[in-house]
Amino acid sequence: METNEEVVVDTTNNEAEGETTDTIAVPKADYEKLNQTLGSLKRELKDLKKSKEETGETANKTKPDENKLLERIEKMSLRQAGVEHPDDIELARNTAKKWNMDVDEVLADDDFKVKLERQQTARANTVATSGIRGGAGKSQAKDTPEYWIAKGTPPSPSDVPNRKTRATIARAMMAKASSNGKTFYND
Predict the structure, then answer these.
(1) Which end of the chain is more exposed for a tag (fewer CB within 10 A), N or C?
(2) What is the signed CA dihedral for 60, 62, 67, 73, rounded to 10 degrees?
(3) Collapsing DSSP states into helix, strand and coil, what is residue 98?
(4) What are the Cα distances from residue 177, in Å, to 17, 124, 143?
(5) What pLDDT was estimated at residue 155?
(6) How far apart are CA 93 and CA 107, in angstroms?
(7) Cα–Cα–Cα angle for 12, 17, 21, rounded to 5 degrees
(8) Residues 25 and 8: beta-carbon distance below 8 Å
(9) Element (H, E) at 24
(10) H or E stretch covering 171
């Protein structure tokens, strides 16, 4: 192989005005060396891409396993702390995220315990008051004879609008007064 031979290399450049072609004369030995270097660079690039894909797959395989493990640990911590309602679990997770803490640390925090207790109390109150029937905010206690006997005065029509209920209350008050020997009327 002679080193004095020259190889003509055509390079094409795309420019805004159009295509231009440059011709460069390179000695054959340098041309072959450049091709070998280019080939080895291509192989290295291919190997790096392959190793990156394998590393990415490995990382993706371990990440879901780690996430599942962390979720299970979190659920166990919540269950151990007595936090089982979905709203309470959401509060714990949101608070942990907001405070940049683990759920375990949040469960031990006094401020979180106060928030959790407040939320549980509000939920319990809502459940307790949801089954009450009757008028909006109207108590049925004034319709009982015991209320008026304890008060000591008979109900007026504005206090108890139902005439039958008022009569029942008046009869119960008279019966109670006669058994005590006292009249319920004020002198």
Answers:
(1) C
(2) 180
(3) helix
(4) 116, 42, 19
(5) 86
(6) 10
(7) 20
(8) yes
(9) strand 19-27
(10) helix 163-180
